[in-house]
Prior knowledge:
Shape: elongated
Strand content: 25-35%
Number of strands: 8
CATH architecture: 3-Layer(bab) Sandwich
CATH topology: minor pseudopilin epsh fold
CATH class: Alpha Beta
Helix content: 25-40%
CATH superfamily: minor pseudopilin epsh domain
Structural class: alpha+beta
Mean pLDDT: 83
Low-confidence stretches: none
Order of helices and strands: HEEEEEEEE
Amino acid sequence: MKKFQLRQINTNHRKGAGFTLIEFMIVAALIIMFSGLTLPVGFNFYQESTLRDQARNLENSLRKAQAMAMTGRGDSSAGVKIEEGQYIIFEGESYQQRREETATIIPFPIALSVSGENEIVFQKSTGLPIFPEEEPEKEKSIIITFGTSSQKITINSQGKIERHEPNEQ
């Protein structure tokens, strides 16, 4: 019968084998450097995608209010009121004359700021925006800003709602 022999594992390691402190510090410095380069890009992407999503949401809410006015739902005009940290889709001739039970409140992210028009009302049946009498041909615009990025939403006198990317403005 043949005997099996186990091979002897070489245990003649160099004492102190492993990473030196200098090697460890170089690797740590490289990791920190690459993180420092990628984090701003990731944060920029987050800002721009959040801004784009919120601008689309507001654009869609404006279209919803316009559709509500055109279909005569609630037998009145409809609109959107923009306030600090939120906007409200309402039925009524103005925000002050709204039917509170049908209002929908939609919150904005905390760091988002909105400037421009703060109330857009669409006429019953036609869905055209109601402009002040002294400026009947002017378009209304809403500018949404998050960090260093911004997007613009315009509503012209024919009721066309458009969202403009930064490179289009």
